[in-house]
Amino acid sequence: MAGYNGCVNGGGYGFKIPEIQFTKLFIDGNFVDSVSGGLGLPSFLILLNEWRASSFIPMIYFTVPILWSPLGDDSLGKTFETRDPRNEEVIARVAEGSKEDIDLAVKAARKSFDHGTWPRMSGYERGRVMMKFAKLIEDHIDELAVIDSLNCGKLLRFTKKNEIPAGVHILRYYAGAADKIHGDTLKLSGEFHGYTLKEPIGVVGHIVPWNFPTPLLFLKVSPSLAAGCTMVVKPAEQTPLSALYYAHLAKLAGIPDGVINVVTGFGATAGAALCSHMDVDKISFTGSTAVGRLVMEAAAKSNLKHVTLELGGKSPVIVFDDADVDIAVSMAHNATFFNKGEFCASGSRIYVQEKIYDEFLKKSVELAKSTVIGDPFDPEVQQGPQIDKKQFDKILGYIEYGKNEGANLLTGGKSYGNKGYYIEPTIFTDVQENMKIAQDEIFGPVMALMKFKTIEEAIEKANATSYGLVAGIITKDLNIANRVSRSVRAGTVWINCYFVLDPSCPFGGYKMSGFGKCQGMEALDEYLQVKSVITPIYSSPWL
Ligand code: NAI
Ligand code: MG
């Protein structure tokens, strides 16, 4: 595993690691430092302010530290480190936005929504600009792929061939939709003419997680741009780099200043400020269930802004006796271990019917053992490092739970190498429904393999979770496929395939996996609101 500093030529894998150009906040069309200074003074100021507010200390005491702040360790604004999960080394320091920066970004977005050109230009024109944006991303695909791989531990061949192109595809899909937004003509029961208008919802806050920095960003930004909204994007603190690059390309493409603002920083500060902001009309959040609850709470306690939530999953893959075992093993392997298991749609509960269970288990273990773990820039590698220490510790903690609760560890179960956040693909059997490893989202390379007898049992077990994001079914029997796909409470069902995501195909959860769709024309509706317009009609020949 090559170290970042030692491999500016890409560690001999035939690519260059680019210089990181964009590390500042992007507000109102400009890259700017965060308002707060270095030396941790912002938090000190906030604490002092709270203390002052609660203890009636005169303002003069409060103003003194402000005079100090330009003398901090980084007088150009507070920053935080972003790291390379291969070796834990710092890639760059990035501006750390706080509430004050969110206020400035929302102000810019508000101004451009209330008075700017973007919401007022035709959908056709917006679509043309978005197409230009997509082309610029394609022109920079090599650099963007390296940035996401470096920041997130993703296989380079995958970011280059799939993830950045997926972002472009999503953007083009919604660019094409921008001039196809329309309401209905209504038949009212009296002498009235009625119609609906679909209007942009306003200023949107997008809170993005770290597991797919590019596709998830474009799943949010693209439909909201097409709808005519303006926005503040808060990327995950682990993966801030590509979002800033996209802001730069958006400006080059001609997206007006203030339409897309990017505030990098932490969830509890920048993210929370966005969710509580009185001038934000909607939050689109993807991340943990726990934070999803906080987002809704903040929306409820502030201005009742709209919310869509794409949360976790504990998705089942159900393999029936008639399946081709080799194909099924490979699909289940991919469902669990793809992207190191850091995928909301991961299939981490694998239910296999009893007749093929033993063969399935043996072949699954062989496949897991053959996985090449290592530097995601190496084209031979199949699994890179987990995103960060916190996630690495969380996954290893769940593996311990599994062992302690009596599940049978068949393979893996340990970290790999002595540097970076690598974990071996892990398979447990004898997993009971009530065990933590069968209930909680682990978000790592851990498979729970379970046996079932009847179709009824499979349906019951598949639904025995608080989540409902996706489900997989592997069978050649159309009647089984039809029955199970209608019985499973999940927002997406994949039959004899897995992870087939397409911009035209609505995606989003049932139950505690959230609500509101991304992808498809449904996602456009998440950024529009319907206005009914009614006017009397006189002497019409019909109603
Ligand atoms: P998280 O939910 O804390 O972070 C996701 C995003 O929310 C980040 O941009 C973060 O800065 C922001 N955030 C955090 N606290 C916030 C707050 N109070 N207000 C507003 N925004 C806030 O997820 P985390 O801690 O990175 O991962 C924990 C677990 O969440 C993972 O192990 C996994 O199980 C799940 N997860 C699910 C994802 C999905 O695709 N549905 C993506 C990432 C994590
Ligand atoms: Mg968190």
Automatic annotation (TrEMBL):
Cross-referenced InterPro entries: Ald_DH/histidinol_DH (IPR016161), Ald_DH_C (IPR016163), Ald_DH_CS_GLU (IPR029510), Ald_DH_N (IPR016162), Aldehyde_DH_dom (IPR015590)
Name the UniProt key words of this record, in alphabetical order. Answer: Oxidoreductase
Q: Which residues form the active site?
A: 310
Q: Which residues form the Aldehyde dehydrogenase domain?
A: 78-533
- On whether Metal-binding is a keyword of this UniProt record, the answer is no
Q: Where is the signal peptide?
A: none
Stated family: Belongs to the aldehyde dehydrogenase family.
Listed name of the protein: Aldehyde dehydrogenase family 2 member C4
Gene that produces this protein: ALDH2C4
